[in-house]
């Protein structure tokens, strides 16, 4: 049989191994765990700062978007108002132009009617003068000689011819 010393349990070895394990644990905690934890905390803080910056920039972008939307809607309303005003102005101007054209047309018609009336009066006056002249000629011709029925017909025909 072989000796059991190789397999035996030595308490001092266990205590020393536990002490070694404890010392290694404390050294690792002091030199490795604390700096790693510090780096992780710094990285977490940087990530939190970036998230906060992103949230702030998102909020600013939303505010700018709202302001631009409000300005755009204001510009649309202003453009609509300008278009309505321009349309109203154009309607007023076209109505003024139409009224002026109607008034000018009425003046032209009135002038033409007045000219026609003057021409008619002048024609009537000329016709009266000619009738008077022809009557005077007929009266003069009648007074110079005695008129027969044939002479009366000839004078009437001549009178009608002179009137035409």
Task: Explain what you see.
With 164 residues, this protein is mostly helical. The protein contains two helices and no strands. It has helices at residues 11-144, 149-163. Helix 1 runs antiparallel to helix 2 (149-163). It starts with 10 loop residues before the first helix and ends with a helix. The model has no long low-confidence stretch (mean pLDDT 86).
- The number of distinct β-strands equals 0
Query: Order of helices and strands, N to C?
Result: HH
Measure the end-to-end span: 177 Å
Mean pLDDT: 86
Low-confidence parts lasting 5 or more residues at pLDDT below 50? none
Shape, per Cα inertia axes:
rod-shaped
Structural class of the secondary elements? mainly alpha
Describe the largest sheet: none
Question: Can you summarize this structure?
Answer:
The chain has 164 residues and is mainly α. It has helices spanning 11-144, 149-163.
How does the SSE layout of this entry go?
Blueprint: H1 11-144, H2 149-163
Helix pairs in contact: 1-2
Note the main attributes of this structure.
91% helix, mainly alpha
């Amino acid at each position: 049989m072989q000796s059991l010393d190789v397999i035996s349990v030595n308490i001092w070895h266990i205590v020393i191994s536990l002490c070694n394990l404890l010392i290694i644990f404390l050294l690792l905690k002091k030199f490795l765990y604390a700096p790693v934890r510090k780096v992780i905390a710094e990285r977490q803080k940087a990530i939190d700062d970036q998230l906060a910056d992103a949230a702030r920039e998102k909020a600013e972008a939303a505010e700018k978007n709202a302001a631009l939307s409000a300005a755009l809607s204001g510009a649309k309303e202003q453009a609509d108002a300008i278009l309505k005003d321009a349309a109203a102005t154009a309607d007023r101007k076209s109505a003024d132009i139409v009224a002026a054209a109607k008034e000018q047309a009425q003046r032209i018609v009135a002038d033409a009617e007045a000219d026609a009336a003057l021409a008619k009066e002048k024609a009537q006056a000329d016709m009266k003068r000619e009738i008077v002249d022809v009557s005077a000629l007929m009266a003069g011709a009648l007074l110079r000689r005695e008129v027969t029925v044939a002479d009366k017909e000839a004078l009437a025909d001549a009178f009608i011819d002179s009137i035409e």
